[in-house]
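Researcher: For the record, we're logging two predictions in this thread. I'll number them. Prediction 1 follows.
Model: Prediction 1, sequence and structure:
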Amino acid sequence: MKTIEEINLHNVKKILAEKKIPEFYPGDVVKVGVRITEGKKERIQYFEGVCIAKKSRDLNSSFTVRKISFGEGVERTFPLYGTLIDSIKVIRSGKVRRAKLYYLRDRTGKSARIAEKIRKKIGIDVDVKPEAVTEENVAPVVETPKEEAPAAEAAPTTEAPKEEQK
């Protein structure tokens, strides 16, 4: 008999096969596309803000996004594998030292900003093709002959040689 954890893992794998969920962390600015149904019409509304919390619990995983709308703080908690979420896009990566950023609720203005994390991509997305050496792309080597001047004629001296007295 399967346990609940095995069933949840199977469902998570099935959902991940259908849609791509990027890797993001608290402190990142994310843009979440939410499906809104109005009568018979369905549209996608984007909710962009700072991810302040992320809960990893298999199928019950969720994340909380906070944004300032017309001077008022708005938070929304989304299920990570929910059917209402159309897309998740990471806009910026934030440099934070905590897992839950609830302290941002009390802050406004410049104190609520999060520094951006610079991610180094070394050799991940770089596609370098070795260039074949042919006669067309090889630069011609031009040798310039060096003219050597004799040492005696190089620098005439105006001083007379001094004679030593014995």
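Researcher: Logged. Prediction 2.
Model: Prediction 2, sequence and structure:
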Amino acid sequence: MKSYILFTTTALIATIAVAYTNLDYRGQPNNTSCTGECYQEYVALNGTAYEIEQRKQALAAEDEFSSIRSLWAGCAACHGQDGQGMAVFPALKGSSADYIENRLYAYKNKETVGSMSSTMWAQAGQLTDKQITTIGKYIETL
């Protein structure tokens, strides 16, 4: 019985190995690596990794709020994409930078400002001074 199982398993593995040699996913060629001519075409089209990174940094430098874009996504989840407010979360749109900064510092220091203060304590507690200033300026532009 053991020899039968061993023979069957070996035959199955051999069949799979022969039948699926150089198997391409859904008939498409394997494109997991790009070398030689493929890489030269990629570089001609997109540039080197260094050049790509330089372009990204140049785009970020043009946007003074690029450093807080991902943070704003968290704010927008409750306050709305345009800061218009949602449900129990107040509108931020129309607020001055000073007002926003003062509120964020109050939340960062775990001060109670309103009924939703505890929600903001963790959010503001993670922000740096520079991020607070930038968020204030961003909200002022909404």
